[in-house]
Amino acid sequence: MKLLPSSIQARMLVLAGVCTLVALALAGLLIAGVLARLVTQGIDRRLDAELALVASTVGDDGTIDRPRLARLQAALEAGPGWRWRIQTPTERFGSDDMPAAGPEPARPDHGPGPRPDAGPDRVRPIDGHDRTGERMHARQLRVRTGAGPVLLTAAAPSDVIERPVRDTLVPLLVTLAALGLLLGAAALIQIRLGLRPVRRLRDAVEAIRAGRAHGVDAGQPAELRPLAEELNALVRDNDAALAAARSSAANLAHALKTPVATLALELRGDPREKLVDRIDATIRHHLARARLAAISTRATTRLDAALEPLVQVIARIHAGRGIGIDADIAPDLAVAIDPADFDEMLGNLLDNAMRHARSRTTVRAASEGRTVRITVTDDGPGIAAADRARATEAGVRLDERSDGHGFGLAIARELANLHGGALVLEDAPGGGLAASVTLPRLNIV
Known about the structure:
alpha+beta, 50% helix, 445 residues, 5-stranded antiparallel beta sheet, 7-stranded mixed beta sheet, 12 strands
């Protein structure tokens, strides 16, 4: 069972909350202890003053000045629970409900050992209960006289100590609670600010994956700078691997192109010429697939910059047929696809539309939420709904009378799928075929 949540922010908040609560609890206990000590010291000073008054009624010979004691009694019993007592070797004076507070004083006829009146006078604290069970705090003084030691005791109810502490602790606890809330809010703000570079780093990695950036900003905090450097090194290594894969596919294509072309020339007019054409088309198809496997999904293509020259090239290729191309491209659109792959995908769709169009081909590009839809429309015979899925299979030609090898729609579909999009074949308004490609939209920075 996990004791801490999986989120770093939640863990830091939990740990900060626990540490804050423990610190505030310890602070509360410490303050309460110090406060109780200060109150107790004030009560002790008052009780010591009472002991001094009582001691003034005790003579050196152990006798008690009763008239003076009677005059002091009102001051000694200042309120409920305040008590006093004088205990001589022979008699006892004071409050009747005074609790027992220590051993009885030794009698004059003490046994062997040091005399009980030996040593200096001293005051000792005593905590106990009276006969009713009420807690009391007392101070006791042993006075040496000629008749033996005399014990003087002054006591106060514990409530005079506990009540000030209790009354002070209530606002203290409220203050500590408010302080805890402030510290919690400060910890939350601090954690969110502290993790902001991590969120920025996550956004930077997302931008790299989406093709909006080619690396992580090196200006990171010291703790994240090594991670940023490793991420940039990973991106460079990945780009190098993609470039090597593309180069290998291109080298293989060049290595096979000449032998296959030579073989086609030697077999011109031979029934096996079609087989060589088929081999050539198959090689080009599988080389394209190998290149697709190494494609970069971080690339970005601006449609207005890519479609205009492509439309002009396709229009010049088919200029002899007198078929025009209309382009309607929304401004400031960008898609997540490599420019070379975009040219090949749209080039195949435009070339296919121009070869089957009767008079006009149209290409439109518009944003649809997080995607961009690019539609190439022709006014040709179109493709029956039952044959559209088969038309995008590699090597399938529905019209054997036209030139081509049947790989244009297949390559366009593979490129669209590879980059997170799709190719859809539909009926064009007024007849013909509408080939629509959807690709992830990117924001132009």
